[in-house]
């Protein structure tokens, strides 16, 4: 098996601006070229575009307008999990010997068609994702005594972390502000929710044969796990995410890394409850104890979990999210995260998922 | 490197019917399960959906409704080249050790949004693909003396071959009927064009470790070539398809197969001129001689090229086309093509492309 690395990464400023999907994809690609030493268009064997907005043939539009003539070029869609699927796909092309260098670029507009699914609509009044977020929250509160205050710490922590992330678009909120934000359901308030936005992010992957051309500090993909099951609200147990547990198990086995060794992680906090459930299902904290754990992180200003602010703090441009998560962990492991830097981070993890954890991806990365 | 095979394949009846994209995907998946011995939902590690119609998260919808809980699940879009991209992606997942068995299912509705691209529209009056088809035709006529009659033989041959393809939806046309069909441009008539339709096709790929569970006659993927350049009408030379030449070169090198060894091929005849150009650019016939070659195929009832009828004879459901091409060559190499069978076919080729050969894929397959 080849060793495969993240050579470089970039993320554009997330916003609520009206920018075309093509412009978003091209600005991330341009930024990646500007910031990567020795990168020539001829180096790139694969261009994979991650988005929920199908304007047809976007990967070839990106390739042509960037002067790239790759072997492989297509778009990948798996809802919020699109970006991480694209990165695993790029990894596979390199591992299979069909590419040495792959560009993955993800983008989404704030009005992405991915926000409400056809199968959501088929549930009528129950169509918005906040309803499964609320089911999970109610179940977790009942079983483990999780409180509204625990949830508020997730949101306040991620909004606080995002203040040191120049690509995030949200502002700082105190615990009190979160807890007094508009109540949307019995269990969730406005500031418990991530918000759609406009943004893009790009990653350059390369095999160990060629990565040194582009960077002196490659970040290696050490473990990959993926699983698609059914939406977790269809399970009897509403407090675990089956696909995340399975994906984590695969990624830990492949990387021979244990949860206790993870120095820094970006995880999918579509709602505050998701961060708690994911922390537990990744084995980073014991089941039912994540609320207390996040309060401690906040109170000690520990940025280990969602240092860029996660989805709640940074915004959630669907097709870009998974790419931006991987970009953040690569940045952390390269030691380039400035005010967000987790000191001495050597081993990182990305967890991404979609549609109430119908599918999950877990990546373990290391220096 | 692992050996990777097509274990089984199926194609639904192409039509102009109003069938939902979900139904199309599910009916091909169901048919594949019915026709594949020992195939259990638990066997499938990857579900890749090929389509230009993004209804969001279709791969997970297919997985959930088929009782499959794969590791990998996403949709792939690369216009007409989507199906072949999906198959190369599935190959890569297996080669990378992330999957042993992959389901690729492609589908399109007759009203696919992939038919006219945003970048086509940006060309104003010149937006329809028939215009680049006409440019190629005029250039080929001028340079090589290709005639309207040569073109008519492509169409008549493919319509004739399609009469033995139970999934094709078109009827038989004589040379005279093709040559008197409605003139659409200076150089192309209605029956020089493939037509959009509704249909789906599925492929099961497996590593050599497990393929024997499903079939006694696996068909191996021996060579893969892919290239994305720019639309071939942007080149000075309007008589060659640069991306097809490059993809073929890769696929021949990987498989150590020469063009003269190809027993049977499915190639992308979006317009009649495409079949001539592709035959030449694959090296199956000398440049400029394809018109005469196709006349000979027709007159000797030789089904070697486009035995299922190609796109012109079968219909062109964009996301399904590449999958159906591979299905046909697998069927031929298994010796199951009945009245379409090319006797003794052991080595086959698929060439697919999109948008005036902006991108091409070439696969070499063998028993």
Topology:
Two copies of one chain form a homodimer.
Chain A: E1 4-11, H1 21-35, E2 46-50, H2 58-66, E3 72-77, H3 82-95, E4 101-108, H4 118-121, H5 130-144, H6 148-162, H7 175-179, E5 199-207, E6 219-228, H8 242-255, E7 264-266, H9 272-281, H10 290-299, H11 310-314, H12 318-334, E8 347-354, E9 359-366
Parallel strand pairs in A: 2-3, 2-4, 7-8
Antiparallel strand pairs in A: 1-5, 1-6, 4-5, 6-9, 8-9
Helix pairs in contact in A: 1-2, 3-12, 6-9, 6-10
Strand order of the largest sheet of chain A: 3-2-4-5-1-6-9-8-7
CATH architecture of the largest domain in chain A: 3-Layer(aba) Sandwich
The major beta sheet of chain A can be summarized as: 9 strands, mixed
Mean pLDDT of chain A: 95
User: What is the third-level CATH name, the topology of the largest domain in chain A?
Assistant: Peroxisomal Thiolase, Chain A, domain 1
How many β-strand stretches of chain A?
9
First-to-last CA distance of chain A: 18 Å
Briefly, what CATH class of the largest domain in chain A? Alpha Beta
CATH superfamily of the largest domain in chain A: Thiolase/Chalcone synthase
Using a beta-carbon cutoff below 8 angstroms, give the protein chain pair with the largest interface and the number of residues from each chain: A-B, 55 and 56 residues
The oligomeric status of these chains comes to: homodimer
Count of helical stretches of chain A = 12
Taken from the alpha-carbon principal axes, the silhouette of chain A is: globular
| Unreliable stretches covering 5 or more consecutive residues of chain A | none
Overall number of domains of chain A: 2
The helix content of chain A, as a percent range, equals: 25-40%
Taken in chain order, the helices and strands of chain A follow as EHEHEHEHHHHEEHEHHHHEE
Rg over CA atoms of chain A: 19 Å
